Amino acid sequence: MASRKSIKEESEIHQSELSDNFKGLKFLKNIAISSRGPHGKVKVIQNSAGGHVTLTSSSGRLLPALSISRPLLKLLTTSAEGQIQTFGDGGLFLMACCLNIVELSEDSLTGNRILIEIFEELMELALGELKSDNFLGKIHLSLSNTVQILSLVKTILSSKPLCKLSEDSVNHLASMIVECFLSSVKDDKNTNSVLILTAEGKSVNQSHHLPGILMLYPEISSSCKKKLHFITKDEKIVVALVTTSMSGDSEEVIQGRYQQNIEVDAEQTVIECMKSFCHCIKDCGVGMLMCQKVVHPIIKSQLRQNGIFVVERMGAKLTSFVQDLTGATPMESFSCKPEKYLGSLDTVNHVILNKKSYLHLQRASSGMNTLVLCNLEEEMVSELKVVCETALNTLQDILQYPILLCGGGCWETCLCFHIKQKVKENQGFILEKTVCTASALSAASEIFTKSLLQVAKTTGYSGAMMMTSFPTFHSWRVPLNSDDFDPDNVLTCNCGMVTEPAKKLMSVNEVNLTILKVDTVLKEEVCKLQQISQSKSCVVDSYISNVSAFRKAVFTAIMMLNVGNCLQDIN
To answer: Which residues cross the membrane (predicted)?
Structure first.
């Protein structure tokens, strides 16, 4: 078999099984577990050839920095990266939960095929519990209640130790993010509402936000602020947004078959077409042309002679923000009628920030904002940017799914015991459907719920005992061998919503499932949690993001357990 890299070398196919990948899987598991939560450890990553050193505990920066080639490990990281791309969060949870299931399954005496069938049934039970109105690990969110929204943002900001955020810094950033988000919400929808810029060498509390968009514009000197003048129409700056190249290499005019003629210059033909386009936008009263790509010097000179301000090389991401800000429709052809595509701005000013020149674009009705994030070091700023992007993505998700989970490991612990009870109640049905033995069901249920509990434990500091209490089954961390422990002390659960005397707490390994049959108090407890969350700052997680990560973790574990052989061309 010929190699795709070299016809002179023969490919070598490497075969491996799940057990052959345990070392790599355990390595990934340790990375995921030790990176989670505010007590997580920062990872230092550099490839074998040297190069940039990345410091992070965020899955959004961690996974792209890892060089993974083994198919089974790549299957896991690809699943986690897909979760991050969709929701911006949940990558570490997915990896930790998935690998817990795989590791415990391999240690079990029950065969993988039977375990897989039972896991699928347990997943359905778990999703049913998460959707239930009586599930005591979730609360409903109201966009009119800023306490709940701030709790969500603070939880996300506090989860990354590399950012080194004090309580004041967390409050400052959370207030800015929520203010930017709420100002962008229109009819329960928002788009590219917040542009994030970074500045290193300054304290976090110097972070600030501005209405509109700040975009880098090095063509103006940063030595002093410059007064800009624009052609206006009805006191508005009319904007033309172009996404095709204006460098003279456009294929729009030069297409089809034609005979070569030495008197015809292809580039000049395109330039003449663009000049005609420029005359059209001038007649429409355009004061600013913004191009995603390059503008030819001749065209740029003509536009400026006509008083039209030119911005070029914006790139796709910034073009998307400009489109939302101005209301302009991108023009992809020089033959279109510009008047149907134009947008507008209220003001454009020159701003100097960190000794760099920026254009400050504003339109009052857009709801767009620029968030300028500051921190002392480059890696700290990069980490802070990722965390704030996660917070903004999560806030967008709650517009469609206004539900939150009780954080700090509480929802995982609560779900664990609800699953155990559901298995006990539906044992006969599950055994009949999966055609397995009671011992196999018991083993699979233990693996499934223990995996959740292990994930819950990773959200806090080590050296503490996980405890719970009826009827909420939230989680508490009680220090081991503490001389100051008093059974009469009232302790608060990890999410901050439930308080119980220490003497009423029990180890998560000592819960008697028979007491779960008491169902009359559940609705009262749900109401209590809802009221507390609306008036007190608590630790909360995104419902849609975490449920998605949980589902993907189980399905990825099932795929990994189902793998017979991994074949890899190592040439």
So the answer is: none
Residue 117's Cβ-count burial label (10 Å; 0-12, 13-18, 19+) is middle
Is 36:155 a contact under the CB 8 Å cutoff? no
Top CATH class, 226-255+262-350: alpha beta
CA triplet 369, 372, 375: central angle to 5 degrees? 155
Query: Which bin fits 10, alpha (ψ -120 to 50), beta or left (φ > 0)?
Result: beta
Class of the domain covering 16-136+406-569: mainly alpha
Instruction: Using alpha carbons only, give the angle 126, 389, 363 rounded to the nearest 5 degrees.
Output: 125
Give CATH for domain 142-212+371-401: 3.30.260.10
What is the rounded CA–CA span in Å between residue 132 and residue 136? 9
Pairing of strands 356-362, 369-375: unpaired
Segment 249-279, tens digit of pLDDT: 766 654 544 555 555 567 788 888 999 999 9
Domain ranges across the chain = 16-136+406-569, 142-212+371-401, 226-255+262-350
CB proximity list for 571: less than 8 A, separation 6 or greater: 3, 5, 6, 9, 10, 11, 12
- Grouping H, G, I as helix, E, B as strand and the rest as coil, residue 323 is helix
What is the pTM for the complete model shown? 0.89
Determine the 3-state secondary structure of 506 from DSSP. strand
Largest interatomic CA distance in the chain: 97
